[in-house]
Input
Amino acid sequence: MHFFDFLPDDAEITMLVIVGPYPSYAYISYLVEELNINKENIFLIVDDAWNVEELKDDGFTIQKVCAETESGLVHAKMYFMKYFDHGQEHIQLVTGSANASFNGMKKNAENLSSYTFHKEDNAYDYIERYFTRLAKGKCGKKTTIRWRDKVLVLPNIRNSTSNQSFSSWLRSGVLFYRYSSDSNFGVIPIKLNKPLPMAVKWGKSGFGKDNFDNRYLKNKYLNKKGLVKEEKGKKDLTLAASIETNHGRWISKDHYNKIKNQLNQTNVLVECLDEMEKNPNSIVRKLLRKVNLLRKANQNKPKVLECLAGIDKEYILNAVMDQIKKDKKKCNNKAFCIRYTSGYEPLSVPNLSSEDWEAFVESWFDFCMMKGYKKPGWQNPLAIKVKKLLMTSKMKERFSKIDAEEPYSSETLREWFLNNDWNLIKYKDGKTLKDKISRYFKK
Output
């Protein structure tokens, strides 16, 4: 069910305000067509940690906001619609757990509640004022509305276009997990007439026990080494630009925007597969030669030769073309291409559950305060810079107010950074603590 399903059939929407942490580009674009509404009349109010470049580039009005506590997440999901029906203006307010995405509205088990307000309702002006302020980039002050037999509480949300909190800065980053390669991608499986016996001799065929499956002869035809230009981005990601946490390697949003094109090599992969699809003969010849070498190695084993019967040039060509088509289909998935070409799977930090958040922040500081030691003699350059900045008497005095005995424990640092404004710590050069730390992670 979509949030707009509560509207009358002939409703003409003149203003749509969507409040929620994770709007998806695909779903917001769908709303433009489905509701026949101009982009200028859609206002997205999102948590300031969420990456919205794609939506912003497409002309949507986006206001970044943060919770009253600064370290919290703007987790409310609210859909404000001002519309005309039979010449009368009304407001429809839908709240619930569903994000503005296809998963939230159609796939997941979510709840939605709808409220209709008419001009004559005493709550109408309060509701309109709250969401109009948000659309204009102003604060949404906490509002409690008693309407008929219902009580509606709207949260305190403030604009955060300039002074981003440490929590929001961390949440705006990206986590990378090591990705285990898809064992079927880029591999031609040649189906055998019968399963190969264990006594098969591989000889010089190139097939062997490493990828043994007695029902198929498998051959890797796509080698990403040398195909994908990933070395620069990968080096930056794994060494100089990341912090190791309990949820994977963390890099800042600024740095991710610099290297994401290096990580996503979809076009390179598709072009390579297109070329192979047009000219598969070299792959076919190589495979046919390997099959013939396998036959030669087992010329005195009739059971093995029986398994290989009928595997000729045409048979192999069909197997090659089928696999290339399957692999091209996988390349339609941007996330898959990033995993294949970079060796990592990116995940937005806001996707961490609330119970994992504090542990994640502690692990971030753990790594910094240990200078990023991974093995003797190895140090992380970013961790060293952050630690040096925190080890000043100016900062130690502040941390000691939380824990005098262990002012530099990860728990103490987490407590201070999540509950204090790092924009208020200023240095002689006019820079703030936020300016200095975030600058390290932009390179």
